[in-house]
Amino acid sequence: MNIKLIYGSDTGNTEIIQQDVVDLLDEHDVSVVDLADIEPSDWEDYFPTFQELDFTGKTFAIFGLGDQIGYAEWFCDGVGILAEVILKNGGKVVGYTDKDKIYDFEKSLALKDENTFYGLCLDEDNQPHETIERLTNWVSKIKNEF
């Protein structure tokens, strides 16, 4: 299976996590695209173009990083924003994850419903000790769903 991993990282944290994802997908052919190599530095700059794409027949798994304390009312919103465009434009999203009791935020557009994220939401600022287990479980899940 060929996988394209597209990411944007202004701080470098997402770049580190994407490398962990690639390592966990070691038996698959993974090509990596940094949005900064396309032109914009992050998703916000690329989003108008993204909204116009046709995703029919394409399958996506989305992960994002957020800060549950510093941005409690917007935790990982980008995951949900991207998922909704993908679904609206004919794509399929896999890799939904449960919002377990360890998460502690006010609101998030990353939630498909009150208990389920559209993808994987990580908090390297406040819960870095949870990252490896969450990431490993998520990659195992998406391998089965792809």
Please tag this protein with its features.
146 residues, alpha/beta, three-stranded antiparallel sheet, two-stranded parallel sheet, 5 helices
3D architecture notes:
- The chain has 146 residues and is of the alpha/beta class.
- The strands form 4 sheets. A 3-stranded antiparallel beta sheet has the order 6-8-7. It has a two-stranded parallel sheet with strand order 1-2. It has a two-stranded parallel ribbon with strand order 3-5.
Unreliable residue stretches: none
Read across the widest sheet, the strand sequence of neighbours is 6-8-7
For the largest beta-sheet, the strand count, sense and barrel status come to: 3 strands, antiparallel
Content-based structural category: alpha/beta
- SS field, number of helical segments: 5
Q: Could you tell me the radius of gyration in angstroms?
A: 14 Å
**Total strand count, please?**
9
Order of H and E elements: EHEHHEEHEEEEEH
What portion of residues is helical?
25-40%
Shape: globular
Q: Proportion of β residues?
A: 15-25%
Mean pLDDT: 90
Distance between the termini: 9 Å
